[in-house]
Specification:
This is Tetratricopeptide repeat protein. This protein is mainly α. Helices cover about 75% and strands about 5% of the residues.
Length: about 170
Amino acid sequence: MTSHSTPLDRASRFVLAFAALAFGASLALGAAPVFAADTWDVPVTSKSAEDRDMAAGRKALADKQWAKAAGHFERVVSRDARNADAHNLLGYSYRWMDRMDDSFHHYGRALELQPDHRGAHEYVGIAHLKVGNVAKAEEHLARLRQICGADCEETRSLGAKLAEYRSAQR
């Protein structure tokens, strides 16, 4: 008995092979597909939801909507507790909301995950100035100088805030 493939069999094999390839590619990119109940044929990745919340959080920050931004970043860290950028921006949001304990917690988490996170060093340094802890702000400024030198944006920003703080204290 000879095996003959019908055009439908070849098309079905092609579709299955393509679907398997697409699924494998999504796994290789680090985003396991999750299928929404009402759109079973359209994969939605947890990564894309994280990206949407990060983008919406950044937009809310630009619009100075601190609580809204915090909500987006809270969703990101609830999905990925190892996202240093989300922890940093959540700390930033909380700082603007005068929730300093929460702010320091999330800056600290960002720095645990990524010890050379320039943004977290800059922002936690500013947070320390907000509560009057100049020595801690200076520590983070020194760390920024080690990480990226005197001319990087984060070093200049924290240095300027420290100079402003000192000037206002005189």
